[in-house]
Design goal:
The complex is a heterodimer of chains A (about 270) and B (about 220). Chain A is an alpha/beta fold and about 270 residues long. Chain A is built from ten helices and nine strands. In chain A, helix 3 packs across helix 4. In chain A, about 45% of the residues are buried. Chain B is built from six helices and no strands. By secondary structure, chain B is an all-alpha fold. The mean pLDDT of chain B is about 90. Classes of the chains: A alpha/beta (about 270), B mainly alpha (about 220). Chains A and B meet through helix 8 and helix 10 of A and helix 3 of B.
Chain lengths: ~270, ~220
Amino acid sequence: MASSVSTQAMHAPAALETRDLNAWFGDLHVVKGISLSVPQNDVYALIGPSGCGKSTFIRCLNRLHEETDGARVKGEVLIPGAAKADNIYASGVDPVSIRRRVGMVFQKPNPFPGLSIYDNVAVGLKLAGIVRRNILDDVVETSLRQAALWEEVKDKLKKPGTSLSGGQQQRLCIARALAVKPQVLLMDEPTSALDPISTARIEELVIKLRNDVTVLIVTHNMQQAARISNRTAFFLLGELVETGATKEIFTNPKDTRTEQYITGRFG
Amino acid sequence: MQRQFEVELRELKNRILAMGGLVEEAIEKSTSLLGSRDKAGFQQLKSIERKINEENMRIDSICLEVLARLSPVAADLRLILAIIKINTDLERMGDQAMNIGYNVDHYLEDGGVDLKLNLPRMAELVRKMVRDSLDAFMKDDVGLAEKVLKSDDEVDQFKNRVFDTMVAFMRQSPDQIGPALDMILVARNLERMADHATNIAEDVIFCCTGADVRHGAKRE
């Protein structure tokens, strides 16, 4: 199963930092003043009961939250080099450009229907104006290899992405996200719709990906968080209760609420 | 709603307590044999040790199942780890009680000369350490566990006195080396039991606080 995951030093440079980040759906305040620094090449797990704001939080990190009617965000999200003064919410920043730097993989695999496996991976580059075949071929192969899918699909790249199994589709979505070389990859319960074998493959993949990209993963599976992340944050009622090295959170959490949640006493 | 883990845990804790009772009985029985040759008592000691071994295997098997099925974390994980280690310590104490039984049997076979070592007193100290360490475990009592750690010094001093006395005795009476060695081994086994009780106390502190105080490490 998963390789061991070491804990990075706290002083590793931040790949992403939030400062007093708040999010609302209409009047409903769902993310409350979260300040969190994610070191580069971390796999950062976000855990907490349903409705605690963790998915909304990561949707703020690539400006997806604001796409929902009535949703709004206040606070700063800093990603080095992503925008003016690094703040992705600075005025005039194009959300689409942010989504190239901050990729996202969702709970249910969502390959573009009607597109081939090849085009599913290449679509982001094509939208960015890259059309040279040799560049596209290269990126498609590299991304599919990174997503541990190349060997399974290299002989059927023209087939529809939707013809793959659920686990393969999810890895295709990861390859699609990686093709545009993001700095950060957000994963919102990426294995909750998958069988144990596919889940194990995605987990292995996430551990390997941290060499290239910083990963924030929302998961309801405590064991998954323990297996693949090197840092964990516990959210409750829109607030960040505790964050620290995963080893500490799962062996000796400091906050009673974290302890109670991860041991199944509530949630 | 009570968690399944708590149900399994209660059973495990009760089993550890019962096993600790058997270990105390084994310590008492092994040193009581010092008085006179008692074949029935020796058989009883063997029977207690067998029960300890059976319980050791049963507890290990339940722990394995709990780990596989319930994947405990945090305080639950520390507790199950403590139970596994305490189980091993108690089983080793059963072996050591049995060793004492054989040492005493050999000593009595050699004539059982009274060496005035007050080993039953040393055994009582060890029994108290075992009882207190398990009480601390059942009640999550860190203070009592720390008291057990301190008691270990007293047992060590007792063992050192036995060693010194026996070395002097062997110099004076080279023909009595056999019984003297048996008494050294009894004291050595009792001292090892106290070390296992100390391990249990350290596990209790880890279980309750997350602090690892083994090998002289201080609690933060």
